[in-house]
Specification:
- The protein is of the alpha/beta class.
- It has two domains: about 1-140 and about 280-345, Alpha-Beta Complex (Quinone Oxidoreductase, Chain A, domain 1), CATH 3.90.180; about 145-275, NAD(P)-binding Rossmann-like Domain (Rossmann fold).
- It has helices spanning about 35-45, 90-95, 140-155, 170-180, 190-200, 215-220, 235-240, 265-270, 285-295, 315-320, 350-360; strands at about 1-5, 10-15, 25-35, 60-65, 75-80, 115-120, 125, 160-165, 185-190, 205-210, 225-230, 245-255, 275, 305-310, 330, 340.
- The strands form three sheets. Strands 3, 4, 5, 6, 7, 14, 15 and 16 form an eight-stranded mixed sheet that branches. Strands 10-9-8-11-12-13 form a six-stranded parallel sheet. Strands 1-2 form a two-stranded antiparallel sheet.
- Helix 5 (about 190-200) runs antiparallel to helix 11 (about 350-360).
- Bound molecules: zinc ion (2 copies).
- One zinc ion binds next to helix 3.
- The site of one zinc ion has 6 residues, from helix 3.
């Protein structure tokens, strides 16, 4: 089969052996895999192994069922939770299977889904309902990350919450905050296209961080934030956030950032603030994400900027290093053509406008 393999300095499409389902496993024919910022940064910073196959945001159809697997059939559409879990170690029992030392994570320590086929444990499958485009399974992973971040923030009706950084994860966070019933969702970002997308997926206010400081926003509106979700990794945001959080508010770091910020301990203690880090989720949260997508409660499709064939995926991963208005790119490993597919967002109309302008800007 063809797969995107890591090579020094980037990625390339290569022929690799077809995966074979072992006991308790299935092989999934990948329909779509989302290009994730963590993949972009891993490649850019040389944190990949030669021959490694990345890709962890995906959906497809079962192509082979291994021995001992019950309840799954060839042809069934599925989303796949990339995070394996032994279910019994301290990391898994405390809800952070990402840190499980005993089970590989797909697209990280196990081969990923920038490939025509992938071998996965049957226990990590989630059924997609008939009639739902199989591609929609690719959106479950970033939504699960966002749902977990919102749960960590412990926010809901009556709260104002800031999402700082409105790329794929930030936009999913806005959707997750809406699901949580948060009253006032504020997005903050630099790119005009991404800010338009933030509005389209449900932000009440969207700040241009180059023009308006968080302190200015709070002074002007009188709304302090019950939580700040940092999906940007912006330098200085942590200290700035402690100035604008409501009492007992939460700062949730969702970006994988190398930043080492100073910690204003006096404000932290006086405000009774909570500080959390999260980049993963449990199987139940992933399953809930699929449920929200299947029920049409989240406009995940609206943030797709492009769909690209496997051959165009290496260059798309490079373009995402400086994304500008680009939000989300899906790789379609089954596509044989080498031409990029333009965005064809289906819902809602307002969001489609944002998606189209994102493409034009490139
Ligand atoms: Zn991801
Ligand atoms: Zn474990």
């Amino acid at each position: 089969m063809r797969a995107l393999v890591c090579v020094p300095g980037g990625t390339e499409v290569a022929d690799v052996p077809d995966p074979v389902a072992g006991p308790g496993e299935v092989v999934v024919e990948v329909q779509a895999c989302g290009l994730c910022g963590s993949d972009v940064h891993a490649i850019e910073n040389g944190h990949t192994r030669p021959g490694q196959v990345l890709g962890h945001e995906f959906g497809g159809r079962i192509a082979e069922v291994g021995s001992g697997v019950t309840g799954w059939q060839v042809g069934q559409p599925v989303a796949v939770n990339p995070l394996g879990s032994c279910g019994t170690c301290p990391a898994c029992t405390r809800g952070v299977p990402f840190a499980c030392p005993d089970w590989p994570n797909i697209g990280l320590s196990a081969p990923g889904a920038y490939a025509e086929y992938i071998r996965v444990p049957a226990g990590q499958l989630v059924r997609l309902p008939d009639g739902l485009p199989v591609e929609m399974g690719a959106h479950a992973e970033p939504l699960a990350v966002a749902l977990q971040a919102v749960a960590q923030a412990d926010v809901g009706p009556g709260d104002t919450v800031l999402v700082h950084g409105v790329g794929s994860i930030g936009l999913n966070a806005i959707m997750a905050l809406r699901l949580a019933g948060v009253d006032h969702v504020v997005g903050a970002g630099r790119s005009p296209g991404r800010r338009a997308a933030a509005e389209a997926v449900g932000a009440d206010d969207v700040i241009d961080t180059r023009a308006v400081s968080l302190a200015d926003y709070v002074a002007g509106t009188g709304r302090r934030f019950a939580a700040v979700l940092d999906c940007s990794g912006a330098v200085g945001l942590f200290a700035e956030s402690l100035e604008v959080l409501a009492p007992a508010g939460a700062f949730v770091e969702v970006a994988l950032t190398p930043d080492v910020p100073p910690v204003p301990l006096f404000q932290l203690v006086q405000g009774g603030f909570g500080v959390y880090g999260t980049c993963a989720y449990s199987y139940a949260t992933y399953e809930a994400a699929v449920g929200h997508i299947a029920a049409g409660r989240v406009p995940v499709e609206a943030i797709i900027s492009e769909r690209v064939a496997l051959d165009d995926t290496p260059s798309a991963l490079v373009r995402l290093r400086t994304p500008g208005d680009l939000v989300r790119i899906l790789s379609l490993p089954g596509e044989r053509t080498s031409s990029a597919k333009p965005a064809q967002p289906a819902q809602p109309a307002q969001a489609a406008t944002a998606g189209n302008s994102a493409v034009t800007a490139q």
